[in-house]
Hints:
By secondary structure, chain A is an all-alpha fold. Chain A has helices at 17-35, 40-65, 77-103, 109-127, 131-149, 156-187, 192-200, 207-225, 233-240, 243-266, 272-293, 298-319, 321-350, 365-368, 370-384, 390-404, 408-434, 451-469, 471-495, 504-509.
Amino acid sequence: MTAPSLQIITWNLWVSAPVCALAASAMVTLIAGAFWPAFARWLTPCLALGGIALTAAFTILAGMLGLPPAGMQVMDSFTVVFDLIILIAAFITVLVSNHYVTRENLERGEYYALMMLSASGAMLMAASDNYVMMFLGLELLSIPLYVLAGFSRGRSESQESALKYLLLGAFASAFFVFGAALVFSATGSTNIVVAGDATERALVGTTPIYVIGLAMILTALAFKVALVPFHMWTPDVYQGAPTSVTAFMAVVAKAAGFGALARVAAAGPEGSWTVLLWGLSAATMIWGNLLAISQNNIKRLLAYSSIAHAGYLLMGILAGGRAGISAVLFYLLAYAAMTFGAFAAVIILAGRGDGAEDIEDYRGIARRSPLLGWTMAIFMFSLAGLPPFAGFFGKLYLFSAAVEAGYPGLTVLAVLTSVMGVFYYLRVTVVMWMQEPEAESGPAAQTSAPLLSRLVLSALAVAVLALGIFSSPVLRWTNSGSAGLERSAEAAIQMTLPEPTNAPAALSGGSR
Amino acid sequence: MTWLTFLIVSGIAVIFAGGLIFSRNAVHGAMCLVASFCAIATLFLLLSAEFIFVVQIAVYAGAIMVLFLFVMMLLNVQGQEGALAGRAPGQLLVALALGAALLGQAVWLVARGGEIISRPARIPAGFGSPEDIGTALFTRNLLPFEITSLVLLAAMAGAVVLARKAGLSPKPNGAPAGGKPE
Amino acid sequence: MDRWVLTVITFLPLGLLAAVLFVPGRRPNVIRWLSIAGSLVPLALSAWLWLDYSGGAHGLQYAVNRPWIPLIGVNYHVGADGLSVPMIFLTTLLTTISLIYSLNIKERVKEFYCLFLLLETGMLGVFVALDYFLFYVFWEVSLVPMYFLIGIWGGPRREYAAIKFFLYTLVGSVAMLLAILAMYFATGARTFDIIAIAGAQPFAGQMALQGLVFWALFLGFAIKVPVWPFHTWLPDAHVEAPTAGSVILAGVLLKMGCYGFLRIVLPTLPEAAQQYAVWVAVLALISIVYGAFVAMAQMDFKKLIAYSSVNHMGYVMLGIAAACSLGPANLSDRATALNGAMLQMFSHGVITGALFLLVGVVYERAHTRDLREFGGLGAVMAKYSVLLWMSCFASLGLPGMSGFVAEFFVFRGAFPAYLLITCLSMIGLVVTAAYLLWTIQRVLLGPVNPKWAGLKDMDWREIVSVVPLIALMILFGVYPAPIFRILNGYATGLASYFVGG
């Protein structure tokens, strides 16, 4: 072999600008927390907020440049929309965390830095058009989450949660790597779209390996977004992890998984892929809602509800196309607002040491704190999918996309299971509004909260309402995102990137 | 010939990986892991990728394993008897069934896609050479390479968080179970 | 200004709610009077609407059509015609009356008035919406406050009743949502407009699919009406609800079910409606007779009135079924049945509203609703006695009261279509008269129970609440022309769908 001529980097650095900005901000936060621990209490969250805002600016700027795919990462309008959703979620997490972290003595610089690193992993997953990159995104998302889940060092539940999440998460990652390897061996490419296209060119005999590889990748992502039957970890981990981390996990990790699924789905795998998604979606909706009914712990209830919502979201992926993916993006936004809202209320209500997390502890809360009563009712009704809240509009867009794509049966099932869901969401409002409060001396839930928490709670409630009533501009925005996804899938096929046949990259990237 | 070597070496890798899972003694497990790593390194040799072979031996079988053993000795981890006890009764059956399904899948895969798996790999000249790897890492895969450093940073920060003595809580006995550095 | 009057009426309570939210909770009187005074504005506007409405066949007036979510074809389309104008008036009237009557609510006043105003917006929205999406949103919006009203201010079993009410209605509305989606996709024009979809007749000729959609919508609306056998939530909800809640529940929310049939099912799915009309008529007959007999067996005053609602709403359904029957009935028969049904909707709202208020009056004094314990109240509470007599007479269909006119029209219209069913449902009429007279006897007549000798007569708050309703019963009983002027246009227009079919 002749001496290789070193190629100059050919992609525009703007493609990676958002992830770099967020990671750099995370490092700054990390260092600031380490060097000035005395100021960490207010400095690190402020730096985190600033970093997230800066990243958002970079994302919007990069999106306006209209960059071509870089071969690993894509900066299309889907990435922009998705990144902004992640950044909004991260921003809210920081705001929601503040009260909790202070109360539970978790104030360390690493908390916010890890959260930002995890968010950058989520952004990477949705921006990657290559399985190698997607895997790295998955790891960058997950590793900080394992640590964050165990951040409450004093509580053994938190430790247990972290260990459980780590073991099962590593297992899922292995599935991803194996799947990617199989896809590569079947198609000779780790590019998602090109690999999908290679099978379309129908190399006889390669299809089963490709399908199995894809199924394994799907398994790993299904684990991340907690689809039945890969959901077993969810209730335990959600319950044990610090509540603010749980909120982050429920929104950002789930969103990242769906971003990656959307990328994979856009490559157009047909046939058995749709059957798999159909089954997963149906099982998730039924099982998630069914098990949520019997929960007494609010965090477990929200865990099962998040499982059920993953089932609805999967319908959008299954439906695909512009309407389906747009509905997924919209629903993610709505889901973020209402889930954060619910968890923010849980954080306030649980009191020091997370004492009151049973639904029964919320008896008569609405009487003592009308703000908590009203906002929690709004979040619950929105999660249940009642108009005029965002949850209803999101569900409607998902359902109509599914009907249009030819899945009326699944839609009927989804509608029926969401009625099932109403029952347990309703129970929370019953306890909060219609039962008498306990005696003041009992271990009753807290209702006092700092001004910031109350402001965040109100803002989220308003957002849930506004996202519903004024959903039109938001929907147009998410529609532009799904259009971008379609366009870059087409572009990737037309470019037919010169993929070399040797790929040590796949091996060195996945040497876990 | 290569085919036979491949079968033997990969068989060794799988057997020792199984040994790692089933051994009750942590040190034995670590030794099994070393053996498995060595077998995998041999697979790279079969692909005539000498450089990766060396790296695999040096980094994984060497450095990382030594670190593992150090940690185990420092913590004085005993063989945890009965770790498998106290499981749900049906769990073993379910696990066996699922494992059998996976095996069946693999067999079916080999049978169906047989010609592809057994197809003599067309290894391009210079595959696995330092130049080749360097070119791949620093041109096409530069971005993933850099991102890997982020992943490592996250893992490192996490390890520090978990390993540090808990700030105000009196009992620092939350073992760094989740803090295995990547 | 004309065009936006409906928007103003609908959203004014919402604005009022926002204002009330800013009044501190320790000033309950400010909250109360602000709400009552504010609610007079929609009432005045809807009265103006009544007078201003010029009628005519399918005379849609005050329509506003603006894009809301253009990507999926949702419009903010509101308008009023002969079907909705009386309902709007009924809603605003009963809301104001309920707010006045609820001056005696002492607990959580702010929440109560806020929820009531939200409820008013939801109900009004249902009656003005001409877009399925908008309709559904308002339909659900009206559900949530009622759930809280029952659950917070209700009786001892309020949690059970509230959840039962919510889940029953929700199952129905979900079936409705599926039907709406089916109609949306079958039309294929990317529109949720009720009138446009009715005009497109998406299922013309596809009887199987049309039947499916029909029964889905039927489930949604029949639970709300309620038609036997979907009525079981009603007694629980009514018995546990606070008085004002019962008034709105019986007076307006039940009407939303009938309204759905008249606004959506009949115009959009005429073939299925015609084919299955006889089944609807049979269910209506069962509701009438069953409701009457079960009401007779009740010892709880409020439960008795609740079951009488099942009975009376049966007449509405009978009228609707007759209007779209397969038989040879001519246009005037069908229009008569529809006029009767629509008048019965209005009249039942007024009469039952008054009856629930009167039950509330006696319950608040005696703290019991057991009919066996009363007796001789006529001698103790003179004003109460007069008002109860009149309301019961109106309810049992005494000529000269609005109930009689409505029921007469229904029977007259249904007679040519369903001879046997109509005759059988006369049984209900007789039993109704029996149980109401028996109730009067048990409550007002007979020897005075010494326990109740000291009961105070009605105060001004209660009188102000009930008297306007009594006045309307008599007005439309003696001179129904003003309401028929409004109803007839819509009734004739709708009936013409089914003539010669």
